[in-house]
Amino acid sequence: VKYYKSARRIYCSNTANSMPEFSKRIKSTDAPCIVEMQRMLAGTEDVMSLAQGIVHWAPPAVALNEAMDNVTNPRVHQYAPDIGLPELRSALAQKLKTENGLTKSDVMVTAGANQAFMNVAVTLLDGGGKTVLFSPYYFNHLMALQMTGNPVLVAECDKDFVPDMDKLGAMLQSDADIKAVVLCNPCNPSGIVTPLATLERCAALCKEAGVWLVVDNTYEYFMYDGAEHGCVEGDNIVNMFSFSKAFGMMGWRIGYIAFPQKGPMRDELLKVQDTIPVCAGVLNQLVALSALQDAGKDWVMEHVHSLEENRAIVLDALSPLGADAIAPSNGAIYLWARLPADCIDDKQIVEWLVRKHGVCVIPGSACGVPGYIRIAFANLHKDKCILAAERLKRGLHQLVTDNNL
């Protein structure tokens, strides 16, 4: 260690290690599994992805025309109101009322649902306040809580991967340090839709315990087998939504928060919003407005219905694992399956599928449940989905019959 004197003070330099430390919070945050998958695929050839949660369609043509019409508009080069363009917020308030039954919620437009969740986490939680996530959980929810210094308690789901309200109730009664409960409905990664009755019971338990309920509704339109999506509203409830999947706007980064009109939450959220993005991109918001008003739910549902074939194709690809190994997924764009009991290292299995069979999926350990895999079925057109599914089926068949990796 060398010591240096200046006119004002004496300071020291550790010449053996002059690199300052990164924050403990960020060092303890999980690595993003999608980035890890991208690294795994770098330099590989002819690998088909059933990993990343995206859709294969582009935004509505009318919305893209809106982008082209406005790209030279001086307005899009300026800041918008932090909370969002007034016309978009008005349209979203009407959508929330008519489609989601939310009549007492204000709206903030964000740069995607992940940023919406970060806004909410920073606004509602102090470092040290515990948050409940249901297993399996969305990995970016966990990461946001880790990097903001908020301990996570993992709650179990029932045998059908529906959040278990009896277990949640017991947790809330036994731990006064719980500040929030997070639900993803439909669930990423399991694809399970939380029934409205379960959601309502969750809301009641949270209200009784005096904790926040945060619900991520990114996949609200993606329903199968007669499942229905529902929302709950209350002074302690925050809902989040996204344009990314429904309207094929992943790269446009537009999401929104529906939060209680009553109380000071708007002002508190604005502190975070002004510090992180200031506002979502103006051109992006105009594209979202056109998608919502000029294409709307009918356009989305037509595309969602087109996924039924992909879903069936990928479901068949999982058949070597056995019917009892596949979760009864009825929503989102994912299937969730248990690997054979002796396949403990799911990351190794995923790497093997990439290397030997040219297909990529997400390991369940990234979502808190080792020994499972998440399979996306919306990111490829049908013809390519068939090829990817054939590869996955061959790989899983070899895994079950041989298990010699």
What does this structure look like?
- The protein is of the alpha/beta class and 405 residues long.
- The chain is 40% helix and 16% strand.
- The protein has 13 helices and 14 strands.
- A seven-stranded mixed β-sheet has the order 4-10-9-8-7-5-6, sandwiched between helices. The protein has a three-stranded antiparallel β-sheet with strand order 11-14-13. A two-stranded antiparallel ribbon has the order 1-2.
- A hairpin with an 8-residue loop joins strand 13 (362-363) and strand 14.
- Helix 4 (86-100) packs parallel to helix 10 (282-305) and helix 5 packs across helix 9.
- The longest helix is centred in the C-terminal third of the chain and has 24 residues, at 282-305.
- The radius of gyration is 23 Å and the shape is globular.
- The protein starts with a strand and ends with a helix.
- The model has no long low-confidence stretch (mean pLDDT 94).
